[in-house]
Structure formats: structure tokens, C-alpha cells
Specification:
By secondary structure, the chain is an alpha/beta fold. It has 13 helices and 8 strands. It binds 2-acetamido-2-deoxy-beta-D-glucopyranose (NAG). 2-acetamido-2-deoxy-beta-D-glucopyranose binds next to loops. Pfam families: Palm_thioest.
């Protein structure tokens, strides 16, 4: 020990004090709300406050989507709009925030996780380090997200329009849920008319038979430190719930789950998930309960924050 002590001392002295102080703080965090929610709703504020209590001094930004929108714009934008445009808005917003310039961790709630994934793969802004998604349908949905009870007019109209033709050009450019609707029995239509989810998973130039090409997945996810995809065990909002772990249901046998490891996009590593898994950075975890049931104080949401957020910058 004595032999090393002077060396250590020299190293410490050589580093400017200010750098030491700055780099010892927790990494900033970006959060992106779910469908029908807003950046500064009661629930989102409570979540952000919990993170701030847990990691004093942490910078937390809740994405306002669309960029500069009012709460009612935000609620509407969860149903109506273009996924890539909303995501680009988030990209512009994040780029304009000085506190985020050295990179950040990100938490996406449900649908918000898809927009953050778009950011991680396509935005030319600061890098995402740990990406944590709660109940995010990474491999799409085969049923519409049910409307709240009582249903809002926005939701009722959107689902009526979606049911009329999910893979029409109109739905694909106006209804957010249609843009992550991925039905394994209608892959041809999905691959032809969808852009948002298809490209997020690098399936752009895939034909129905698969094919090992990686297109338009941007940078993919291989360069992130960790991707933590959290599924809710009793989720009945996201159908199928295994989509939150990039799995699908076999169209010929509804009790057969096809895991990520057997998906073309993983085998061919279209978006770097295999590379990420091989370096130990892909985590598929569970929370008990229903969709977005974070379990209150000391619950699953809190435990995930304690484990994956607030690492030294
Ligand atoms: C359907 O899948 C389940 C689970 O993998 C399996 O046990 C069962 O044998 C399958 N049924 C048929 C008819 O292939």
C-alpha cells in the first residue's frame, strides 16, 4: 500500500478540482411519458420528484411532445400524428438542453419508450447510456390499446379510424398506434406500408421470408451501455405483452411464444441487440401487475430506478 500511495496522490492532484466535482454527480435523466399522459402530469411529476429525492442534484427532463405543445396537444399527440415527427421533436428538444450535452439515461413509459428508442437510434444529439423502458411494445401490438374508461373522444375516434384499415396509407400517416401495429399474419402489408416500427427494428428491407439485412435501424442499440426492457406480468393493455421483450406469438399456435433469440432481426443483428446481449447490456426484466403498475413507494418502479439510474456521470 505504502508503495502505491504517492502515485495515487499525484494522480488526484493532477486532476483539476472542478472536473472531479462535476464528474462525480449523477448522470442526467430524460423521461418520456406514455399514451394519453403529459410531460408534467401529476404522475410524471411524482416520478421525477422520486428520482430527485433518490439522487440529490440529478438533472431530470420530462419530454414535452409535441415540442412546445400544451398539455392538451400532448394528450392528442399520443393518438394522432406521425411517430417519426414526434420523435424528431424530442430530438430537437433534447439537443437544446445544455445539461444533457454529455449524454444521459432515459426512461420511456409504454409508447414513450418507442420515441426514445427512435432518439437513441436516429437523433444526432447526445448519446443515451442506459435506456429503460416500462411496458414498451418494442415488437408492436396486434390489438389496439383499449380506450380509458370512460373513453375520451380522441381515443374513440382514433380507434374507430384504426379499425377501418390499420395498414392503409392514411392510418399509417395519421394514427400513432397504427405505426406500431405489427401483425405476424399480415407481414407483407406491414413491411410495405409501415415505416416507424419497421425501421426501428431494422426490418425495412426484409421480405416475408426474413432475410438478413439491416436497414434503416439507424445506429441501432449496440452502442448503448444497457437496454433494460421491463414487462408487466399481467399486462392486458399491450397485446401481446411479450412484445415488450421483442417476442411474438406464433400465429399458428397461440400458446407458443417466439422469443427474441429466434427473431430474424436478432439472428441477423439488424439493430445491434445481439451485440448488446453479448456484452451483457441487454436486460429483459419483469414487474408484477398490470400495464404501468409501478407498485407505488418501494415498488418495482422504484427498484428499477435504484438499480439503473443515477450512476456517476
Ligand atoms: C403449441 O405450443 C405449445 C407451447 O410451445 C406446445 O406445448 C404445443 O405442443 C403446441 N401445439 C401444437 C399443436 O403444436
Amino acid at each position: 500500500m505504502l508503495v502505491f500511495a504517492p502515485l495515487l496522490l499525484t494522480a488526484v492532484v493532477a486532476v483539476p478540482t472542478q472536473t472531479v466535482l462535476e464528474s462525480s454527480g449523477p448522470r442526467p435523466l430524460v423521461i418520456w411519458h406514455g399514451l394519453g399522459d403529459t410531460a408534467h402530469s401529476k404522475g410524471m411529476n411524482q416520478f421525477a420528484d422520486f428520482v430527485r429525492d433518490e439522487y440529490p442534484g440529478i438533472f431530470v427532463h420530462s419530454v414535452v411532445s409535441p415540442n412546445g405543445g400544451s398539455p392538451s396537444d400532448e394528450q392528442k399527440a399520443g393518438w394522432w400524428g406521425v411517430g417519426e415527427e414526434l420523435s424528431q421533436g424530442g430530438c430537437d428538444q433534447i439537443k437544446s438542453i445544455p445539461e444533457l450535452q454529455d449524454g444521459f439515461d432515459a426512461i420511456g413509459f409504454s409508447q414513450g419508450g418507442l420515441f426514445l428508442r427512435w432518439y437513441a437510434q436516429n437523433c444526432d444529439g447526445p448519446p443515451v447510456k442506459n435506456l429503460i423502458t416500462f411496458g414498451t411494445p418494442h415488437f408492436g401490438i396486434t390489438d389496439l390499446i383499449p380506450c380509458p374508461d370512460p373513453p375520451t373522444l380522441t381515443c374513440t375516434l382514433a380507434s374507430r379510424a384504426a379499425k377501418a384499415g390499420i395498414y392503409t396509407r392514411w392510418a399509417q400517416s395519421h394514427l400513432i398506434q397504427a405505426q406500431y401495429y405489427r401483425d405476424p399474419v399480415r407481414m407483407r402489408q406491414f413491411l410495405q406500408t409501415n415505416t416507424f416500427l419497421r425501421d426501428l427494428n431494422g426490418e425495412k428491407d426484409m421480405d416475408e421470408e426474413g432475410g438478413f439485412r439491416r436497414e434503416n435501424g439507424g445506429r441501432g442499440l449496440g452502442g448503448l451501455e444497457n437496454v433494460v426492457a421491463i414487462a408487466f406480468r399481467d399486462d392486458i393493455t399491450v397485446v401481446p405483452r411479450v412484445s415488450t421483450h421483442w417476442a411474438t406469438i406464433d400465429p399458428d399456435n397461440s400458446s407458443h411464444v417466439i422469443p427474441l433469440e429466434e427473431q430474424e432481426m436478432y439472428v441477423g443483428d439488424f439493430i445491434g441487440l445481439k451485440r448488446l446481449a453479448q456484452k451483457g447490456g441487454l436486460h429483459r426484466l419483469f414487474c408484477p401487475g398490470q400495464h404501468m403498475d409501478l407498485g407505488g413507494e418501494g415498488g418495482c418502479g422504484d427498484r428499477m430506478v435504484r438499480k439503473w439510474v443515477g450512476w456517476p456521470a
